[in-house]
Amino acid sequence: MAIERRRVLLILIAGALALPAAAGTVPGPSTRFARGLLWRVARPRVAPSHVFGTIHLADPRVLDIPEPVTRALSRSRRYFMEIQHAAPERSRFFEAAQFEDGRRLEPLIGAEAFAKLAAHLRKRGVPEQVIDRIKPWAALANLTVTPEDYEGETLDQKLLARARSLRLPVDALEGVEEQISVFEGIPMETQVALLKHALEHRDGLAGLIEPTIQAWVRRDLAALDAVSERIVARYPDVADHYRVLFRRVVRNRSIVMAHRLFMPLRQGHAFVAIGANHLYGREGVLRLIEKQGYRVERAY
User: DSSP letters of 101-162?
Assistant: First the structure.
């Protein structure tokens, strides 16, 4: 299972679609962070660092690393990303994605939904024994949408390769067990409801990819955040479940990321690449960094 690659559907519903009830557009200081993808973080007697909002896709339109980003990266001394996905992490994700207590997916989502999911996973080469034991959150992550014109690597992977070519030390803001716990902590009721909903409305959800990309290309964090209003309006019966998902996958992780950046930012010369959906809002990373006493200015 390629859980770590091109998780377009999960990214849409858990990342780019920041539900307004959970974060939303808020007045005051956060509105300063409505536009921009690259941000300079500085304070007296500390070398500046940069925070860049990525988009976890391989769409050709997002893969050209902008010159200001390249320049900031070349002047940095350390590179920070959300999580590393090397072989050990992939193996651990694969293990965690399956029930080990005798439970099976079909009784949880029903025979009709399971048949639809199984057919999709078989096309992707997922073994039958894995399909039977896959957890709802992992099945949701495997409902990927990969257009034919997508490249073989995402923007995040390109940035990581560039950082390594510069021989920058690379570190992650989260460990694999932490990220697994994020998904495991989503109530089973919500996991099941969102999986069944995604199976039934896959095309409609995939249709939100384009406005998400367009907002990112315009460097419009507020518009990226506002894409969520469409899913709330279109599917009000599952809106509460999407709020739970957002709280776990975006808001709570944004708070943790800002906390983990405390020491790297104090040391300076850091380049931080995290999903753009983590930047905006009252509890977004930029606002939380500012509250730590830094001056946060748009660089691109």
Answer: SS--HHHHH-HHHHHHHHHHHHHTT--HHHHHHB-HHHHHHT-----TT--SS-HHHHHHHH
Backbone dihedral region for residue 59 (phi beyond 0: left; psi -120 to 50: alpha; all else: beta): beta
Which residue(s) pair with 270 in the sheet? Answer: 78
Yes or no: say if 254 and 224 are a contact pair by the CB < 8 Å rule.
no
Cα separations in angstroms, 210 against 19, 54, 231: 18, 16, 14
Please work out, in degrees rounded to the nearest 5, the angle formed at the alpha carbon of residue 8 by the alpha carbons of 275 and 219: 40
What's the CA angle centered on 57, arms 51 and 58, to 5 degrees? 120
Question: Domain limits of the chain?
Answer: 8-96+153-186+213-298
**Dihedral sign (CA 286, 288, 290, 293):** negative
Phi and psi at residue 40, to the nearest 5°:
-90, 130
Q: Is the pLDDT of residue 18 over 50?
A: no
Residue 17 has pLDDT above 70, yes or no: no
Question: What average pLDDT does the structure give for the chain?
Answer: 88
Across 145-157, average pLDDT: 78
Q: Are 175 and 96 in contact (CB under 8 A)?
A: no
The CB-based long-range contact list for 232-239 (8 Å cut-off, 24+ gap) reads: 232/19, 232/20, 232/21, 234/204, 235/197, 235/201, 238/193, 238/194, 238/197, 239/19, 239/21
Buried b (16+ CB within 10 A) or exposed e, 214-227: ebbeebbbbbbbbb
Bridge partners, 275 (sequence order): 54
- Cβ-contact 245, 137 below 8 angstroms: no
- Please tell me the pTM assigned to this model: 0.89
Six-digit token string for 199: 């199976």
Farthest-apart Cα atoms in the chain, separation: 62
